[in-house]
Automatic annotation (TrEMBL):
Protein name per Swiss-Prot or TrEMBL: TIGR03016 family PEP-CTERM system-associated outer membrane protein
InterPro entries associated with the record: CHP03016_PEP-CTERM
Length: 559
C-alpha cells in the first residue's frame, strides 16, 4: 500500500506596538487599529492511505469483488487575530480500483472555508462561508452513496455565502438587529437528475424590540425578504417575504394584553402557469401574556385570517407563543398558529450539562434545495477539530452559547435527504441530537424525520433516519469505534413515478491505534444494505444490494 505524506506546520505570532495619536482613537474604537495586534497562522497537513476490499451482492446478478487503493492528502489553514478568524481546508481523494474485468482511477477534490471579521465586537460582523464537495443527489440512495458505491449519484456541488449583521443592544428604549446575505449554489447533473442547480439568493432580515426601560409596554417587530433567482428561465425566481409584530400592554404585575399581526407571501415569478400565483396569508389577533422574565413567558391569542385561498380566508384560530428557561441549562420554546397551508407549529428545546448535551427542533418551512444547502440547520452537540474522522477526538462544550474557535466546528451526526431538483417544497422536519462525553466514552445519537410536500406537483416524500455513533477508549492509544445509521424513505405521487419505499442501512465497526502523536492505523469492517422498490435510476447497483467492506488505513498528521 502506497502512502503519501504531506504535512506542514507554521506558526507565528507578532506583537506590534505603535504610538497612536488622539486623532486615531476613533479608529481604535472601531477596531480598525489596535496598539497590540496578536495574529496566529497555523497550517497543518495530513495524509491517509487506505486498502479497501469490497464485495457487492446484487439482486439476480453475480457477486462483484472490488479492491480499491486510495490516498487522501489534506491541508488545513487557520488564521486568528483579535477581530478576525478564518479557516480553509482542502482534500484530494485519489482512488485506484480493480475488479475482475477492468480497472479505473478517480480523483475527487473538495474544499471548505469560513471567515469572520468582527471590527466592533458583536455590533458589526462580516462572514464568508463556502464549500466545494460531493453530495448525494438521489434521495432513494440516502446513506449508501459514497465514492466507492453509487458514485454516479453524487453531485459536485459548490455553495458560497457572504453575510453581514448589525446588532444594537442594551439600549434604554429601542434595540435593533439586522442582517443581509448573498449566496450562490451550483451543482453538476447526476444520473438521477439531468437538471443541475444554479441559483443566486439574496436575503434581508431586520428586527426592532423594546429597550431595558420598558416596563409596561413590551413589543417586537420582525421582517424578512428572500429572493432565490434561478439562472434557468424555466424555473423563475422564488420570492418569500414575511413580517410579524406583537405588543404586550402590562395590566398586572405579570399579566399583559397582547396584540399580534403576521404576514407571509410566497411566489414564483416569471412563470405563466398557475404555480406563479402568490400564496399570501395575513392574520391579526388579541389575547393574554403571562411573563415572569424576558426568557420566561407564554402568550395565548385568538386570531383572524385573511388569505388568498378561500378555505383559509376569514377563519378564526388559536395562537400560542412560548419561551421558558427552566434553568440556566435548559430552555424550551414553541409557537402554534396558522399559515396558508393550514395549521402550523414550531418547537425547540435544548439542554446542556457537563457531560450531556441535547437539542430538539421542529420546524415548517416553504423552501427548496438551494436554500437548504445555503442555510443548513446545525444542531450539532459535539465540537470537533477540523478534519476529525470520528467523535473520539471531539468534546462536549461547557455551555449552550459556546462559540467554536477557528479550527473547530459543530458536527451533526445526521444529514438531510435532498433531491437536487430545486422544486418548491413545504418541509416539516423534526431533528433530535444527543451527545454524551465522559471518561472513556463518547456517544452520539440522532433522529431526523422530514416530510417534503412538493407544491408544484402532487408528490410527497418522507424520510426517517436514525444514527448512533460510539467511541470507547480501550487504552491510552487504542479506540473502539462503531457507527450505525438507518433510513426509511417513502415516496408517493399522482402519476406513480415516485411511488415506493427503501430501507437503507450503513454500519461500521472499527479499531484504531495511535503510534506517537502523528501516526494512526485502523481496521474497519462495514456493512451497507439497500432494499425496497424505490429507485430513481441513480443507483449503480439497483434498488436491492448488499455491500461488505474491510478497510485498512494508515494516517499521518502533524499538528
Amino acid at each position: 500500500m502506497d502512502i503519501t505524506t504531506l504535512s506542514v506546520k507554521t506558526k507565528f505570532r507578532k506583537v506590534v506596538h505603535r504610538n497612536i495619536s488622539r486623532k486615531a482613537y476613533l479608529a481604535i474604537g472601531l477596531g480598525a487599529l489596535s496598539p497590540c495586534v496578536y495574529a496566529e497562522l497555523d497550517i497543518t497537513g495530513s495524509a491517509q492511505g487506505k486498502s479497501i476490499f469490497q464485495e457487492v451482492e446484487r439482486q439476480d446478478e453475480d457477486t462483484l469483488s472490488l479492491t480499491t487503493f486510495s490516498v487522501i492528502p489534506q491541508v488545513n489553514a487557520t488564521y486568528q487575530t483579535r477581530t478576525f478568524s478564518g479557516l480553509w481546508s482542502g482534500t484530494l481523494t485519489h482512488l485506484e480500483r480493480d475488479n475482475d474485468d477492468i480497472g479505473q482511477t478517480q480523483d475527487y477534490a473538495e474544499y471548505s472555508y469560513s471567515a469572520q471579521w468582527a471590527p466592533i465586537g458583536r455590533a458589526l460582523v462580516f462572514q464568508a462561508t463556502g464549500a466545494l464537495n460531493y453530495r448525494n443527489g438521489d434521495s432513494s440512495s440516502f446513506l449508501v452513496s459514497d465514492f466507492l458505491t453509487n458514485s454516479n449519484s453524487l453531485a459536485k456541488t459548490r455553495n458560497n455565502t457572504l453575510s453581514s449583521s448589525l446588532l444594537i443592544e442594551n439600549n434604554n428604549w429601542v434595540n435593533a438587529q439586522g442582517s443581509a446575505s448573498y449566496s450562490d449554489v451550483a451543482s453538476e447533473s447526476t444520473s438521477a437528475n439531468d437538471t443541475p442547480l444554479d441559483n443566486d439568493s439574496y436575503q434581508l432580515y431586520g428586527s426592532l424590540t423594546n429597550g431595558e426601560y420598558a416596563r409596561y409596554l413590551i413589543w417586537e417587530v420582525t421582517g424578512s425578504y428572500q429572493n432565490t433567482a434561478s439562472n434557468q428561465s424555466s424555473r423563475g425566481d422564488f420570492i418569500t417575504r414575511s413580517a410579524e409584530a406583537f405588543t404586550d400592554f402590562r395590566v398586572l404585575q405579570k399579566w399583559a394584553i397582547r396584540l399580534t399581526a403576521t404576514h407571509e407571501a410566497n411566489q414564483i415569478s416569471d412563470r405563466t402557469d398557475t404555480n406563479s400565483i402568490t400564496r399570501e396569508f395575513n392574520s391579526y389577533g388579541a389575547g393574554l401574556t403571562y411573563r415572569q422574565a424576558e426568557n420566561r413567558y407564554i402568550a395565548l391569542t385568538i386570531n383572524r385570517s385573511d388569505s388568498d385561498t378561500s378555505e383559509d380566508d376569514d377563519e378564526t384560530f388559536v395562537g400560542l407563543d412560548l419561551l421558558w428557561a427552566l434553568s440556566s441549562r435548559t430552555e424550551i420554546g414553541g409557537s402554534y398558529g396558522r399559515r396558508f397551508y393550514g395549521d402550523s407549529a414550531s418547537a425547540n428545546m435544548s439542554y446542556n450539562s457537563k457531560h450531556f448535551r441535547s437539542s430538539l427542533s421542529y420546524s415548517e418551512d416553504v423552501t427548496n434545495t438551494s436554500r437548504l444547502l445555503s442555510n443548513p440547520e446545525n444542531l450539532g452537540v459535539f465540537v470537533c477539530p477540523v478534519g476529525a474522522t470520528s467523535i473520539a477526538s471531539c468534546f462536549q462544550p461547557a455551555s449552550l452559547s459556546y462559540s467554536p474557535s477557528a479550527d473547530e466546528q459543530f458536527v451533526e451526526l445526521n444529514s438531510q435527504n435532498l433531491d437536487f431538483d430545486d422544486r418548491i417544497i413545504l418541509q416539516k422536519r423534526t431533528n433530535f441530537q444527543m451527545g454524551y462525553d465522559f471518561s472513556r466514552v463518547n456517544l452520539g445519537v440522532s433522529w431526523l424525520y422530514s416530510e417534503n410536500d412538493y407544491l408544484d406537483e402532487d408528490r410527497l416524500q418522507r424520510t426517517l433516519s436514525m444514527t448512533t455513533t460510539l467511541s470507547y477508549k480501550l487504552g491510552s492509544y487504542t479506540n473502539l469505534n462503531t457507527s450505525l445509521s438507518f433510513a426509511r424513505i417513502d415516496g408517493q405521487s399522482e402519476d406513480n413515478t415516485y411511488d415506493g419505499s427503501s430501507d437503507n442501512l450503513n454500519a461500521t465497526l472499527g479499531l484504531d491505534r495511535s503510534f506517537g502523536k502523528h501516526l494512526v492505523t485502523s481496521l474497519d469492517v462495514s456493512y451497507l444494505d439497500k432494499s425496497g422498490d424505490l429507485s430513481f435510476g441513480g443507483g449503480l447497483y439497483g434498488s436491492d444490494y448488499t455491500d461488505r467492506r474491510i478497510t485498512l488505513s494508515v494516517t499521518y498528521t502533524y499538528q
